[in-house]
Amino acid sequence: MRKAGNASVLGRASATMLGVLLAGQVHAAVNAMVVVEPTARKAGLIVSQQGVEAGLGKVLGQPVSLATSEDLTDMMRATRSGGYELFIGPAQIAASALSRGYELLGATQGSEPFVLVVRADVADLGALRGRRLYLPQQDSIYTYMARGLLTQGGLSMQDLRVAHERYPQAGLAALLVGSADATVVRQSEWKDWQGQHGTAAKVLASSEPVPGGFSVVVKKDMPADARARLAQWFAAVPASTGLTQAKFKPEMQEYKRVADLGHFTPTQLPGVTRVTAREAQQLQAKGAVLVDTRIEKEYSARHIRGALWVPYVEKSLKDVAFNPAMDDFSALDKADKLKPSQAVIFACNGAECWKSYKAAKQAQAKGFKTVYWLRGGLPEWEAEGLPVESAGS
């Protein structure tokens, strides 16, 4: 009887402990993070932690723990590790999270382009080499946009003397007094400044629209009904929380562009002729050799009909100032069908793939006289409905 009694007591104790654990799981706090651009610190200071926690807690029916950070580098890491169920932050934070299992609930501002503004005496992008670029900290959205705009123009951050400061709008003032030669700002900031200072500076490049203000993203593994309630709450969030209502719903492509900034290849490569898929096909018909620089697995699965596999083994940075000594393109020297006197076309996986860009540049350096670059690669070829094949076909 004693043993049975002990077993009964232990059973009740175990059940009680299990209930406590389950209750703890049910009521575990949802971790939310407000990520503030140092360039927009005021927006973060007015957010009421208590008000947001109370509002979100009521919506979700469980406690919410809200924190705030201006450390954009650390917060980018947090999006990769899934450290928070909910992020309220600038476009680059949202873009990183959206590619890692999060869903967009909305944004507090509409989208607008960023512009690369230079002093009036700077003739073109090439003239910026060695000159001074004013930007906020490295993970700021302004710096993201600057990297993308420079890359498209065939420049690297390493080609300029970059000063990372705190306030982006001050970059325009730096142009005016001559302490900087270039900066990147939102289009609306440029127009306001231009209205006061006229022709003291000019725009050399402009980006596609980028979501402004705060974007709100939540983990996709949160129940669908909870995500729907959160979207409704943020769209009509009370002013007492210090948050702006997230009524805008930017296109996902806008966030993808932000996530890809600095990874896209330039639009031009000096000394190399960029061609379209249709033009590449015509050149093939005239005897040009189309070279696929991707890995063997990709080439075997599907490639442009007639393409020669000559892999570019890439370890260097995806940057116009890449170090070719870090890469292996010995396959070019071993390819019997390729001679410097031949016309060659290099291609890979599209505008985000740097292998064909680097291969074309290396071929040029090795003495190839007629070099073409199909920047759109296999994706553009297929989009045009042109023929492909696999290694076994």
Describe the structure.
This protein has 393 residues and is an alpha/beta fold. The protein has 3 domains: 159 residues, D-Maltodextrin-Binding Protein, domain 2 (3-Layer(aba) Sandwich), CATH 3.40.190; 94 residues, D-Maltodextrin-Binding Protein, domain 2 (3-Layer(aba) Sandwich), CATH 3.40.190; 117 residues, 3-Layer(aba) Sandwich (Oxidized Rhodanese, domain 1). The protein is 38% helix and 20% strand. The chain is built from 15 helices and 19 strands. It has a 5-stranded mixed sheet, sandwiched between helices. A 5-stranded mixed sheet has the order 8-7-9-6-10, with helices on both faces. It has a 5-stranded parallel sheet with strand order 13-18-17-14-16, with helices on both faces. Strand 17, helix 14 and strand 18 form a beta-alpha-beta unit. The longest helix has 25 residues. The relative contact order is 0.12. The N terminus is likely disordered. It comes from Roseateles subflavus.
Helix content: 25-40%
What's the gyration radius in Å? 27 Å
Q: What overall form do the CA principal axes indicate?
A: globular
Integer average pLDDT: 88
Q: What is the name of the CATH architecture of the largest domain?
A: 3-Layer(aba) Sandwich
Number of strands: 19
Which blocks of ≥5 consecutive residues have pLDDT under 50?
A: 1-26
Oligomer: single chain
> What is the domain total for the residues?
3
How is the largest sheet built, in terms of strand order?
A: 2-1-3-12-4
Structure annotation, total helices? 15
CATH fold type of the largest domain: D-Maltodextrin-Binding Protein, domain 2
First-residue to last-residue Cα separation: 78 Å
Strand content: 15-25%
CATH class of the largest domain: Alpha Beta
Major β-sheet annotation:
5 strands, mixed
Secondary structural class: alpha/beta
